[in-house]
Design a protein that fits this description.
The chain is mainly β. Helices cover 3% and strands 56% of the residues. It is built from two helices and 20 strands.
Amino acid sequence: MSLAAALTLFSPSAYADTAERERPRLELYGFTQLDYIQDFQRVDPAWDATLVPSRIPTTPGQFGSNGQTVLSVRQTRFGLIAALPADQDARGVIEFDFFGVGADAGKTTPRLRHAYGQWRWLLAGQTWSTFMDSDMYPAYIDYWGPAGWVSRRTPQLRLSPLRGTHELAVAIERPSTLLDGNLTNDLRGLQPLPDLAAHYRWTGAWGHLQLAGIARKLGYEPLDSPQASPHGSALGTGFHLSSLLVKGGAKLRLSTAYGKGIASYINDGGVDLAASSPSALSAQPLLAVVAFYDQAWTDRVSTSVGYSATIASNTAYQTSNAFQRGDYAAITVLVSPATGLTLGASYLWGRRCDSGGATGTDNRAQLSVRYAFSTHTN
């Protein structure tokens, strides 16, 4: 069961009478998943359980000879939803998976995905950014997903004064600053103000259209002497236009995002700040696109095919191995032979291009088996 589907169970319309709505409800949900991946080239070993274009080497042999077999349970997930009675229904969600990142990259380490509470128009905690469109998530089995997807889970305080057919949401979110790799030995990022994000969504029987915007203050200073030069900040801004078009069993997901200093919100590739002169940094322009087509052929069989890209505008002061472009394509078949059981097969292709022109590609096949569970009963 998806998080969105699980949350729907706790909407006010899910209860037929007042007595039922007044009773607190608790649900444990999640799934176990085994991924068998046959990689025909190589990626960074810490990221071999998913295809992330920025982790593809552009130097032959950097991570060893081609060909690697991976079996992983890192996508396994569990969560808890509590619906509490109030003058209107309130709910709290906490959810983990086991896909370690950062210092835990490559490990089966519990990783917090969602931890938030929501009451009517107020949401507080960690969940999907207000700048993103979570309905852009296609029906596929690779963990990280399309390179150009606007994707971030972050702590935030969100207000949604309009909900329903017309939705308006505004949030302050935890800031972060991704510095170009050749700067991190001397500089560190500063987060003087929260990020400000907002979106408007129009929903109908045909699907939905969403427009989002974001504004960020991206600061930086020397590691050893905070008041020395270079020291300052740059304004990061961006927009994100997305649409889910639905007809019968067909779903078309389209998304484009463009901005300066928005790499923190893009699924893969690019940096927020890069050197624009020997003594100053500027917000790096970035374009991200997603196009995926999903088709449900029966209640138990569906397919997905699509392409995505992240394209950065590098400066003359970045090194030749700086990330310039990441491409991602996938074709997936999903079969559900029994309730809660999903079998998936996917072929994935990725490519990385560096600022200096070097490129690297990766092709892989993936088979996945997922067993979903939930304590909720109708």
